């Protein structure tokens, strides 16, 4: 298997690498002086007293510094979240979260049903997803072999999410307990970013395990699956456009 750093760089190669959101325990002027080197600049910082990680948006990041940040991400010293391109992207992601008000720390039955429904739907459309556990929900990634206009990606995701919610409703569950966020989102490109595979969640400190139809993989197997998905499951642009045409024709 290729090095973990090279895998991350290749998988997310279509996303901008000159800016990132950093989630870390580090803070203070000394920390920032070490972080902001070689022209990197702090756009904003968000400190927390709740025990969660502090957040910093860094811009003007040179390539060697991004490599260092990704290496720290893999070493679980911080989390790196990347932003999406303004016009088009070669990947999209559904961030599916538990919107339950009384218990927001577990995977609820609605989520279990929803993740199976969205996997089946995307696979039937020829867009097999990479599903990564994230806290109380999942990140559902699809990677394309070339960039597609963000409006097409967004409209596709809206329809997939709507059909998934319909499946939840038809099975007697409340779809309001599931929250969808779309990446890229045509409404707010510059303010939202998404955590990359290969790190630990800020709240529950668990690794970003990959979910297969047979269940969650352990950390080593997740990296192996990640490499296999990158090599064999990247979706041709023509296949995505056929999926888009199919889902927009559905009643």
TrEMBL record:
<protein>
    <recommendedName>
        <fullName>DNA primase small subunit</fullName>
    </recommendedName>
</protein>
């Amino acid at each position: 298997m290729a090095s973990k750093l090279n895998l991350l760089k290749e998988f997310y190669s279509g996303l901008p690498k000159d800016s990132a959101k950093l989630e870390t325990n580090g803070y203070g002027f000394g920390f920032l002086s070490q972080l902001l080197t070689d022209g990197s600049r702090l756009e904003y910082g968000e400190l927390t007293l709740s025990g969660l990680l502090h957040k910093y948006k860094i811009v003007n990041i040179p390539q060697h510094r991004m490599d260092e940040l990704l290496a720290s991400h893999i070493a679980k010293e911080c989390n790196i979240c990347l932003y999406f391109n303004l016009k088009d992207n070669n990947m999209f992601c559904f961030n599916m979260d538990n919107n339950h008000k009384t218990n927001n720390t577990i995977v609820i039955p609605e989520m279990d049903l929803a993740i199976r429904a969205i996997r089946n739907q995307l696979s039937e459309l020829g867009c097999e997803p990479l599903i990564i556990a994230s806290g109380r929900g999942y990140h559902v990634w699809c990677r394309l072999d070339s960039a597609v206009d963000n409006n097409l990606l967004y409209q596709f995701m809206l329809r997939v999410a709507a059909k998934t919610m319909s499946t939840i409703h038809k099975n007697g569950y409340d779809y309001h307990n599931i929250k969808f966020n779309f990446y890229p989102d045509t409404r707010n490109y510059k303010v939202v970013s998404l955590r990359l595979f290969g790190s630990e969640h800020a709240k529950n400190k668990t690794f970003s395990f990959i979910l297969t139809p047979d269940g969650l993989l352990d950390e080593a197997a997740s990296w192996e699956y990640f490499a296999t998905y990158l090599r064999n499951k990247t979706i041709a642009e023509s296949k995505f456009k056929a999926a888009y045409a199919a889902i927009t024709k559905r009643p």
